[in-house]
Amino acid sequence: MGEASLLLHKEEEEEEAEEAEEAESSVNRTGNVWTAVAHIITGVIGSGVLSLAWSVAQLGWIAGPFAIVFFAAITLTSAFLLCDCYRTPDPEHGPGRNRSYSEAVAMSLGKNSAWAFGLIIQISLCGITIAYTITSAISKRAIQKSNCYHNAGHEATCEYSDTYYYLIFGAVQIVLSQAPDFHNIQWLSIVAAIMSFAYSFIGFSLGVGQVIENGYVQGSLTGISTSSAIEKMWLVSQALGDIAFAFPYSLVLIEIQDTLKSPPSENQTMKKASTISVVVTTIFYLLCGGFGYAAFGEATPGNLLTGFGFYEPYWLIDFANACIMIHLVGGYQVYSQPLFANVERWISEKYQDSGFINNEYSLKLPLIPAFRLNLLRLCFRTVHVVCTTSIAMIFPYFNQVIGVLGAVNFWPITIYFPVEMYFKQRNIEAWTTKWVMLRIFSFGCLLVTMFAFVGSIEGLIGAKIS
Hints:
Number of helices: 16
CATH architecture: Up-down Bundle
Mean pLDDT: 80
Radius of gyration: 23 Å
CATH superfamily: Amino acid/polyamine transporter I
């Protein structure tokens, strides 16, 4: 009887393995280095680039560029660690894929770590989509203000309510959120990446033009002067939070890696794509941040293209803000799709027999191709977009919000979990040279995160009170 049970159990395991193999083979992975670069740049260059001139202005000409390069190096180091966690060694079935960051944490560090990670990452993903909603509304309003200043003069009172802009962005995201997964939005990421290059280049070019018009470089080695050392400390900490927000894409790295075809191995392709993307974005960030500060000095705005350091040419300002809006439409989806997948996967596993949750319906509307509709996807994703839009309307404070989000995301998701998974994957023994170096790396980043978080929270509270 025992042998029969063992045999039956073995057959069930083999059947499960076959089913998993079939499911795996049904996923059509066609991504390459350049599609991965498009996804990464879409995820990285977003709201963060717009605040970099302000961040450099708080830190000054020495600490500002150094901080940008510092965070770039940390981001790339973390990305390399995380790339190697896409496939988890399995003694029975060989290396298996982890289709999401949360799966990789669960496989490497266990269920308790996966639960803690899941909570942090869902909060972070929601926070980023809130920041993107705020930035998109600000950009829409900036176009209207730019046209008003052009027509009525720079001294005119050009104030507009942005409620309408938030609602438009939310409506667009409700529609786009019905795309089933990452594999269905590669085109959106490519378009969004092009837009990010466009407005970054425009911001850089306008800064160069303003410096040439001024005839000299503004700014100082210590940054913008303040009334007290305490105020300076809070602004510096907030600037570090803004820079931290501008770089990391660890939240979606493994999801992007899961779109890649092999051979070559996914981790090699992803490391190459990460290197290209981080180098390109760092150059953009240094140019945009540096020339923004050089152009305006003490008057550097919190948002380079919507804080109206620039007024003319108004049509170019309008075009840059339109590019920002298009980019953020794609960026919102890049960060939302992992959240959608995690929640919907958990609900589907919990209620496997529910037709509402698992049934797919084909819907054909005039003039557009047929698409699949799922009632769970329709309801949950709509509620998510409504919630993020509502929160963005309550806390529309650009620099403070992205400072808080940068600090919250930076250490736990970009540093702690990749380091811990790397230890587990590579069986790094305690007190070896590599172990000590990575522990110092992790602890140093924790201190920076805590400093940035406290300062950004202080700034958010101060903005809300005022």
